[in-house]
Request: fold
Amino acid sequence: MKKVNSIVSFLMVLLLLNACASKQYVITSITGGLIEMNSSLDSLADPGMLAFIQKYKNQLDPEMNEVIGEADQTLTKSGMQSVLANFTADAMQDRGTDKWGAVDFAVINNGGLRTTLNQGPVTVGNLYEIYPFNNRLVLLELPGKAVKQLFDSFTQKTMEGFSKGVRLTLKNNVIESLTIGGKPLDEKSTYRIVTVDYLAEGNDGMEALTQAVQYIKSNIILRDMMIEYTRSLTSKNQKIHATSDDRITIEE
Reply:
């Protein structure tokens, strides 16, 4: 979204300049591209800026490098069922239940998970890399009909992450069955869903979430919650663990 906003701002400036200039100058085309930010740019670094950053880096490194947990395997966000999304959504439902009481399920987008969680020690910095945005947890009360629309959108566009209380069976890329908490979806019922404010606004193709009949905000940032959740696992001598389970089944 920031990239889109930057492009829009750039176009507005160009149009303004064009309007103020002589009519003999007309914008005929605009082109752009992506430049990967990698070590090849290190030789171009400004010494003064490096010195400025280093001051803060020295302060942040001890906090970012703190080991707070351990992953028993590598969690990626690839495939029909993302194990990283499984872990995240399950943690969201767990913490949502602690805060708001019974929650039917949680939803997270794979696009909000920015990198892989590697097997082995997990640091605070690792979780900042995976969850870089300041998205906050929200509780939605969503009509069953909108829940059906939400999962239909997953089959038509991109399969997103949802917590383990949901069982989704697909056949020919169409929903064959959908159960929540062990019961078939009831389109006349209302479901309590934990997600993040960004998605609750209908972003990333989740327009169905905007049909919520109740929207309860919180100041809990997803990243902070995942850091706390990882610490709690460690305090119980548990490792981060997630697998592809039967929450999604593909029938031939």
